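Hi F.,

I've been meaning to write this up properly since the lab meeting, where we talked about keeping a consistent format for the predictions we share between groups. The idea is simple: the sequence comes first, exactly as it goes in, then the structure tokens exactly as they come out, then a line or two of notes. No screenshots and no reformatting. I'm using this chain as the first example so we have something concrete to point to.
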Amino acid sequence: MKIGIIIVTYNSEKDINRLLESIILQRYANLVVYIVDNDSKDETLKKIQQYHFKLSISVIPFKINNGFAKGNNIGIQKAMDDGCDLVFILNPDMQLEEKCISVLIERIKYDEKIGIIGPIVLLGNNTGAIIQNYGVKVNFRTQKKSTLFHNQTLTSKIPNEMYVDYVTGGAMMIRCTVLKITGLFEEDYFMYNDEIDIAYRVKKAGFKTLCVRDAEVRHFHDFDKLNKTGNNLMYYYVMRNKYIYFKKFHFYFNLSLSLLAEFISFPLVIIWAIRRMGNRNLLIFYYSGLLDGLIGKKGLANKSFDENKKTKEIILTIDYELFLGKETGNVQESIIEPTRKLLSILEKNGYKMTVFWDILHYYKLLELEKSISEIKQDRLLIEKQILDIAREGHDIQLHLHPHWLDAKYVNGKWNFNYERFKLHNLSGENKKEDINTITGCVSISKKLMEDLIRKVNPDYKVTTFRAGGYLIEPFNEIKEALQANEIKIDCSVCPNITNYNGIFSFDFRFYPDEVKYNFELTPKDILKGGSFIEIPIATVKIPLLINLFFTLVRMIKYPHLESDRKGRGVGENSKESRFIVPKRFLSLLHSRVNQLTTDSNYKERFSYIIERIPNYSTMIIHAKLLNKHTLGVLDEYVSTNKIRFISIQDLLS
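Output, unedited:
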């Protein structure tokens, strides 16, 4: 019988010599080695070349990673085309004992009902004969499995052979006639679960799977390293492919039971991942796999899981403002200090940002400083930092909170009236000189900014707008004021986010979820060639289970996150604090849409969001909400070049 040995390699330079040397020593001559290389970047192919005169080898190189299933299928098909009777699937980290192949051939050729046969697998890094597995018993409906004789010593008491449900995919011999009936490996899996799938199809076709003790292979995989650090991608594929399998074979009842079990065991999974495995990110991969399996994502995992991913370019915007409410915080702690810390992080790599300056705060300081001496110090602090920001080449643009026009400073505190919180609440009269009109507010604010910043940057111009509280709609009411001041770019929209809180309400459901687009009458409608450009703040929908996980992480790991802020003060919504607990509980019961931000955020959730947004997405930060933890997260991303921050002007230039 002619046998084709199928080996799929991917950066396998440390293992391939050992495997090929063991094949040379086999006591069976009628074999051909088919090596499918999945775009190895190391010396794998170079090392294989030296064996062309020692073995009959056919190398099939690819410029992409096809995965385990497709890679093997390519090799299997070539072997079948070349007239092979059997194919022997081997992982590169295996080593065959001298008589392994001949023992398997002798057993399978006399029993046509054996569709798959496999050797006993011993731990390669152990000097003794410790069994890794001797086949697996599995319930094909639930996928609950038991690895036979795992970690036991190989002795004469181990049965000579055993009929099992499946053998490891790393050392599996299959009849080609059987494969013509069942089909090849399921390529939807990419890797993991392949052997269960094909074993089930072989069983349904009426064939058996056998393990033979006298055929031995040693497996040199680094299991200790896997157990210590956790293999995130492995858990992603195992979880995802389990649900692909359920759906493929219509095991929907078992799928439902599995989901129920995952829900019940959720707290235990968190403990397992964080305490035992020491790998918080594993949870993200684990539950992402579950969700992707349910929605039918197949093949190679999302490229965001690639450990060698390139630097992501993000438009960084910061709202330079005080808090709303009765406790606004002070300028030094809520604006100056956190902004200074952020600037020092960006300076490391020369990164830039766009600062949306709440200019009407500055306007009010100028108005009151003659009568209230302490106000002047705040104005000077802001003025100095804004000019320093401009000197360093950052972009500074217009942010309007018209409630400052009615603000009062009493006994060292700001008192606000929110009747004119929204720009639209000002008069619609076309009076450029009257700051109480929409046109006048935009015009005077723009001139105030340009007059100051042109002291250090003569070419400076206000071109971009962010509405206070994101209240850009109805856009047609402020359109003319923006056009009259040559402001053609808006950065207020947060796709799919809503806020139903009285005068602060907005609804961005069904708005375009794009990096940038043109519009005319409303940013809700894309219009190619429209005279305005919308650069929305990026958002990501977090599914229910992942949202539940992040909520628990926040409660357990970061209970005092908000107290670490560099700024001080509370938002206007703090008066609803008695509703926080029920609101938080209700928020666990559905998916959540999150901005790309570090505001009230933490490393795990921020990392999840970053992985899922495209290049040139827009991020928002409020200086007043920065804290030690979030500054540390930003510092890590900048220092490791995971993110390159740019300004809106960088994007458009």
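Notes:
The longest strand covers residues 208-219.
Residues 3-221 form a domain with the Spore Coat Polysaccharide Biosynthesis Protein SpsA; Chain A fold (CATH 3.90.550.10).

If this format works for you, I'll send the rest the same way.

G.
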